[in-house]
Write a structure and sequence with these properties.
This protein is an alpha+beta fold. The chain is built from seven helices and 22 strands.
Length: 363
Amino acid sequence: MTPAICVAWLLSSLLLSSVPSGSFAQESATTTLQKPVSPSIPTQEKQSGSTFVSFETGLERIARGGEPSTLAELQALEKQQEKVASQINKVTVNVQQSSAQGSGVIITPDGFVLTAAHVAGRPGRTAIVKLSDGRTVKAKTLGTNRGMDAGLLQITDKNGAPWPHATLGESKDLRLGQWLIAAGHPGGWISDRPAVIRVGRVLQIMKSTLVTDCALIGGDSGGPLFDLNGRLIGIHSRIGTETTDNMHVPIDVYRDSWDRMAQSQSWGTLPGFTPMIGVEGSASSARAEVTSIAESGPAARSGIRPGDIILSYDGNSISSFTELQRAVEESLPGDRVEIRYERLGELMRARIIVGIADPQSAK
């Protein structure tokens, strides 16, 4: 194994020992939305991008998923990885919302950024994007396909446009065993450290998920996955408990979801991460009255009790328990929301952190 690849894997192993895996970044703050400028995600035929790198001589067999069998092939793989790493660092960004953070990748000259849904959060929020040169720019969250963990935002600052952006590939063209390069900002953005590079291979290909052995940790979520030509083919999603089960959203999912996400729509639920606040009520009631509450759930911890009538959820008026259920379903676990409610004629309010539902738990 080459020194460059060894260093990347060693760094990821060291970071894995110090940062909890499985943690998802969450966000806060709201702002007014602007209609996106770009009508659609670039196709492979129409794309530009600055990350494409031609193959080193003798690398064709390895690029298709083969194992290096000669010193020349090993050296070619190392050179290719180094060239791609130098290009993808320019388009890999750190995404910050409140005190939480994740990663992302710029894909258009006008600053559209792909990330994970759990990093983007809900539409209309202000995000801070850290560029490779250390500059900080503002961005606006757009839509999310939560069922696939695909999210979109756009840089709103104009100082710096046109932005460097990734060359796009197509995930449908991937093969088992194919070599890939993962980038991100694990543990957050660090001023004297570029995007951290990991090299791995495709282990499983599904329509909704790519599985690789590119080791990911907290802070990598939303970061880019490239092939050996420097084409973007996925976005980091769920962090595996082992180095052999790291999940990525295929780039083709973003193409399929682009129109809705660009219109700031959010839909679906990430499997295993159904949001809940821990209250129950009657769908037939004319009011959103809490009839029971989960002990130690988010609502209980905030002081909400049975008999309270929910009036608003995160600034949106609530007139029935069905409306409350829908509002909770549009949240993400970890969201901080304000609930206004009535208790015995007195108006009250509480701030809660949305939790994750067990299969048998209440909304």
